[in-house]
Amino acid sequence: MPGVRLEKVSKRFGEVRTLRDIDLEIADGSFTVLVGPSGCGKTTTLRLVAGLETVSSGRILIGERDVTALEPRERNVAMVFQNYALYPHMTVYDNIAFGLRAKRMDEAEIRRRILDVAAMLGLGDLLARRPGELSGGQQQRVAIGRAIVREPNLFLFDEPLSNLDAKLRIGMRTELLKLHRELGTTTIYVTHDQEEAMTMGDRIVVMEAGEIRQTGTPREIYFRPADLMVARFVGSPPMNIFEGRLEGGAFEGAGLRLPLPGIGSFAGRVLLGVRPEDIHLAGTLEPERASAPFSARVEVIELLGARAIVTFALEGAEIKAVVEERQLDTLREDTDASLVLDHHRLHLFDAESGERV
Amino acid sequence: MAVEAEANGMAIPASRWGLRYRLLLPLTLTLGAVLLYPLLFSFWVSLHRYQLTRLQDVRFAGLRNYLKLFEDPAFWNAILNTLTFVFGAVTLELVLGFALALLLHRLPRFRHLARAMLLTPMFVTPIAVGLMFRFLLNQQLGVLPWLLEGLGIRIDWFGPGMALFSIILIDVWQWTPFMLLLLLAGLESLPKAPFEAARIDGASAWMTFTRVTLPLMKPVLLVAIVIRGLDAFKVFEYIYAITRGGPGGSTETILFYIYKVGFRFFRMGEAAAMAYVLVAVTLALVTLLYLLMTREGRRRS
Amino acid sequence: MTVPLLRRRLYLALQTGVVGLALLTVLFPFFWIFLTSLKPPDLVARPDVWTFLPSAANWREVFLESDVPRYIANSLLVGVVTVAIALLVGFPAAYSFSRYGTGGGLARFAVLAAEMVPPAVLIVPLFLVMYRLALTNTLVAVIAAHLTFVVPVVTWFLIGFVDEVPRELEEQAMVDGYTRGQAILRVVLPAVRPGIAAAGIFGFVLSWNDMFYALILTGGASKTLPVAIAGYWTFRGIEMGKMAVAILLAVVPVLVASFFVQKHLVKGLGGGAVKM
Hints:
A: 357 residues; alpha+beta; 6-stranded mixed sheet; 24% helix; B: two-stranded antiparallel ribbon; 13 helices; globular; disordered N terminus
């Protein structure tokens, strides 16, 4: 299975630059997720790899082959679209067979392959139906089956789960991952949903405004976001950000003064990022990780089950923390609570550039 | 290829640039031959003394054909008749069509069947409609005068003073369905929320109609009026079938007059000049239509 | 009974009454013409006769002893050829307008505007050209004339229908290993089949119904049905029965056709306006 390489790829639509000088290396057999807010260029990148758009400049390689100037059909990739793009006038069987027939494969072989794929995806009973008679989840499976059956070099997914309801979506995630493990085909998967990106990708590419902001494993993206945009985009509820200054090894801002051991000599205006789960009630965190305690007023408690999201007010700023359900007893709305931050999990960003310090 | 795309400032490669125009070529050639060429030729004819009976003697006439029109009382009569016809027919069709659309929209049962049947006249061959009503309304043979006679009413449907109105009524019979079609579709595509809000606010039926339905329907109404108006200018068949312009030129419309001048008297130059006056009117209405439609398009997007 | 309920019943009665009256107005002329076509020749001119022993005399005469069957064939031929050309020319163009946005909104509108060019301005040059080419009184002349309005209408319809086919469908086919051309033929074309049918039928109805062009450009054996019908009116009442038959022959096919296109008609008339 070949990987994919993009070299200095740019894309303009008329005056609009959608992608600027993208360099991206996608390893053999990896499951890479392109994620970012809408309009960030992730779908364009995918369509460039598919050959549905042509680059304005730069090169695209699949394996060792330069495919920049090739038509989609010459690239041996399979794609699953957001709206599934099933051919409405063909049965499920013919939909799946369509790509094989393009290769003039003999019908017996086509049949064998389709039955294999149908068994794998549980489509056996649906082969004679038309797309219009299928549920959203079934259509989704047909679209996936159509991609698998061709045994392509590369799978491309364009937000394939966004039209499914929440429950089905989570089930399909697992199935797609299982399929990927079984087939080992290099996969590029586009989504705007950071949670989906985190759960599915073995590598994540975060994009914004036509540029790649960070590439890494889900852990790297989550625990060491390269800049403020990535930090804010990934994680739910989103990271708390405090404006302030770094001086003499301590952070000052939002009415707080927090000594930060091991921060070095850096000084200047910064943004301090703390994920909601890294804010703890004083006394619940091992002392060597805990920052100096500070007090904040409890505003709203939203119970999710085992955990709750608690909103605190702090000198006009608002912070959200994730608190274990069994620790809630000590909290009451409109009273003050004493909080600490986890020293090991703080993120500092330059206030000007937004880059990680 | 990439270089050329760069130069164009667009990312569609050269081969695809070709395809989009290649696909357009057959249409361009066809319309060029049957539409554009005649349009230009017609204009050329309108500037000449061009009589089919004296083809060896075609002479440049400048604007004389146009100037002649302004002094031709029959031309002005035809214009006036046409405007009366268009105004009368479109107004009646609009009112009737809108009323029927509103009633049909809320019809609890048989809505689709009733709609399908009410739409039938707009598909019928206009000359057949003309002859049908000539027969139905005929003083001696017609069933309608006979029925009305039973009620003590005598109307000479195609007599002086009445003929144009009768022609309008025939047009109303045939084309109210078109209004109904567009307006019913318009009503069905309106959002539900404003109507529910109006009900909760306790608005009366009349208030709901004037304050909610009417403003929401305005774009559809305008487009329907312009399209129907444009089409009504082309009225010909009923007149050919029934009155041939009479009595006393009272139903002579512009298209019928052009037909008469061009193909009964063979004065092609004058006919072409009249046609160009009609083109000017059409162009104005078409521009209006374009503005209405693009404004609506922008509002939706 | 409560007042609101009474009012609702009154409204329903009014509604039913008005719709019923409209239906009667629409259907009665058809009914009367049908009745007339079955009357024995001596009763045709008698509006007071509603019941009689049906006679097939009018139908027999029109079918066996007149040229009407030939005129029907002429009309059919003109309609079919015109629509075929319009579809062949219009579909590729509609694809280009829809997928490449060729010419933008103005080009789309030009298609609509082309349909509205007054026949008056086209007939003079069309007649002169056909006259020069010695093609007057042939069906070629009528076909050329009908192309002037059928091609724009059909193209306009098709733009709207192609707009509705998701772009991803042909992209999928292209990723699946087909060229754009194959994708158009094997995916887009079948997906717009109902639209093509609607556009084709509507175009056919327009061609079938035209009398203005046909009146001027045909004559004798090349007459189309509407021109032939127009010639039926004589002041001898006896002809009315045959005229009724001819009217029905012109009307019934389009009424049948209309039931097939009604569902798509609004969408079709809306055509390419959505993305203008």
